[in-house]
Amino acid sequence: MADAFGELASGDVAELELVAAGALTESVAAIDANWPGELAEERATVREALLGPFARRATKAIAALRVAGVTDDELATLRTTWLAALAARNPGEPVITVALLPPELAAKVAAAAAAFDGGVTPFAADPSLIVDAVRTPLTDAYLSTRCPELANSGVGDAV
Q1: R_g over Cα of the chain
Q2: pLDDT, tens digit, for every residue of 108-133?
Q3: Full domain range(s) for residue 55
Q4: Does residue 118 fall inside a structural domain?
Q5: Which of 15, 4, 3 is nearest to 114 (CA)?
Q6: What is the pTM of this model?
Q7: Count of the separate structural domains present in the chain
């Protein structure tokens, strides 16, 4: 949303990706680890075709953070910061508000974002993130009956 409607510069979008990266990779791992048995036939499709491209970008983002000197504790701070921003997110605003980071961590994130932005296809231009042709009807039905709030968070038209 921030990239499409928030009028952010590419580097600002990269910075948001970096702050979100740890939470995203942990979430993808948790989804995979807790996959419902009744959706077994769609598990690989969801993991590889829907979530995979985003997880791979997040893994690259974490690598950029590591090169910039971000520690395990600082990665935990970024995850906590991102999850707090999601919890407080105003769905009517395209750009999520992220709390200020400690100055040293903010500098590392800025350096990593510059490298990431220069070395990775910008989010909005990344063709691997176009997943609308992937069909998961069982998963869509499951989510629509068990997680109706997802429709409010922009998870997808099928939900």
Answers
A1: 16
A2: 999 999 999 999 988 888 999 999 99
A3: 2-128
A4: yes
A5: 15
A6: 0.86
A7: 1
